[in-house]
Amino acid sequence: MLSRRFALAPFAAAMLLLTSPAAMSSQQATQLATLQATVPRAKVPYGVGERAEYEVKFGPVTMGSGTMEVAALDQVRGHEAYRTIFRVKGGPFFFKVDDRLESWIDTHTLSSLRHRQDLNEGSRDRERNFEIFPERATFSEDGKPEEPSVANPLDDGSFMFFVRTLPLEVGKTYEFPRYFKPDRNPVKIQVLRRERVKVPAGTFDAIVVRPIIKAKGIFSENGQAEVWLSDDAQRVMLQMKSKFAKISISLFLKSYRPATPLTP
How far apart are CA 169 and CA 179, in angstroms? Predict the structure, then answer.
């Protein structure tokens, strides 16, 4: 139950949640922690400890591995956050890939709070770090001055988990103006079909979707990516096929470990 102060002043409590932790007094920071502890986490089909491992093919040849996991429950500027990691590693001798996306997702609002990209693709090697501030709709790249963002922002990695929370009705296209860089919006999710799919982990009923982000990478407009999600409450990624950097890449689920239940 909320404290009497928050119960009597809901507007003040809401404004406290929107206050930048850097601008808070120690008393306000304590109040924020107390408030967050009383608010239930958003219900999602994933959680800390979940880990999926993938066989990766470049073209028709298996020569790599991938993982998608919810690695930890962290604190980002006073906000509780899921830390998620998506990694793909491998490739032919002439084009090695080692991409890692890390995202910190607010457990209450499911907005992005922080995002890291470490992309190594052939001769291209780039690392970028983003701090994302939903409370004032801005973001900062590599410590530079803040730039305008959007309400309830999401990044490349967190979108992969966000898609799992959608109803996904076949034939529908969902559009979201939520990518943290405004000029890349809207992000589209096309729900293509249902089908039975066989992967190393077994045979599953799946929903096939096509995510489209106006950015480079696996989900770019030119990549024509398709993602097979389990047709159940978990929406685990079973398979993914895409084209980027002039090569085709496919991921096939090898093993899956469910999340460890968390205390409220």
Answer: 22
